[in-house]
């Protein structure tokens, strides 16, 4: 709950409106879909990746039904081979736990070291996008433009790519 409060307070300070759906803890997109939340807007799938040496970390955002080709993404971002980061790295870099991966994790990234890769398709999304408020028992619904404002304000590097 404290993680959620931090996110909601931050959004409030920025003057950004959002809608919140509370729900049982979910750990996968499939569990989110079973709750019927995709009727509100587009659920965003968030992946936390690292390069082969663990020097670069990436938060990848895409629509719930998309899959990412890690080799293709690696080539696009000029990285060594990509793999999913461990739960320990997730906690260390973004202060998050398994199932709660969210772009709002950057609020805990004091060094602004995590790079955000956003599927270009989300840039033109007209519906609300659903992401966890660093807590997997709720979903925050807001526009991509507002999510982009948060990322810009925080200073983490982000880029839109075709995934």
Features:
8-stranded mixed sheet, YbaK protein, alpha/beta, globular, 8 strands, 163 residues, 31% helix
How is this structure best described in words?
This protein has 163 residues and is an alpha/beta fold. The chain has one domain: Alpha-Beta Complex (YbaK protein). The protein contains six helices and eight strands. Strands 1, 2, 3, 4, 5, 6, 7 and 8 form an eight-stranded mixed beta sheet that branches. A hairpin with a 6-residue loop joins strand 6 (129-131) and strand 7 (138-142). The longest helix has 13 residues, at 2-14. The N and C termini lie far apart (32 Å).
Secondary structure layout:
Blueprint: H1 2-14, E1 19-22, H2 29-34, E2 42-50, E3 57-63, H3 70-77, E4 83-84, H4 87-94, E5 114-119, H5 120-123, E6 129-131, E7 138-142, H6 144-154, E8 158-161
Parallel strand pairs: 2-6, 3-5, 5-8
Antiparallel strand pairs: 1-7, 2-3, 2-4, 6-7
Quote the CATH topology.
YbaK protein
> What's the architecture, going by CATH?
Alpha-Beta Complex
CATH class: Alpha Beta
Number of helix segments?
A: 6
Rounded mean pLDDT is 93
What is the 3D shape?
globular
Major beta-sheet overview = 8 strands, mixed
- Order of helical and strand elements: HEHEEHEHEHEEHE
What is this entry, summarized?
This protein is α/β, with parallel strands linked by helices and about 160 residues long. The protein is built from six helices and eight strands; from the N terminus they run αβαββαβαβαββαβ.
């Amino acid at each position: 709950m404290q993680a959620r409060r931090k996110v909601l307070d931050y959004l409030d300070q920025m003057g950004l409106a959002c809608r919140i759906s509370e729900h049982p803890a979910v750990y996968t997109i499939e569990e989110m879909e079973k709750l019927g939340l995709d009727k509100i807007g587009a659920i965003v799938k968030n992946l936390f990746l690292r390069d082969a040496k663990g020097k670069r970390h990436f938060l990848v955002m895409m629509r719930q039904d998309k899959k990412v080709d890690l080799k293709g993404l690696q080539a696009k971002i000029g990285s060594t081979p990509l793999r999913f980061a461990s739960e320990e790295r997730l906690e260390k870099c973004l202060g998050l736990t398994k199932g709660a991966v969210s772009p709002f994790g950057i609020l805990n990234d004091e060094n602004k070291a995590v790079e955000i890769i956003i599927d270009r398709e989300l840039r033109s999304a007209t519906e609300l996008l659903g992401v966890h408020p660093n807590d997997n028992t709720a979903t925050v619904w807001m526009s991509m433009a507002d999510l982009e404002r948060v990322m810009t304000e925080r200073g983490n590097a982000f880029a839109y790519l075709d995934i």
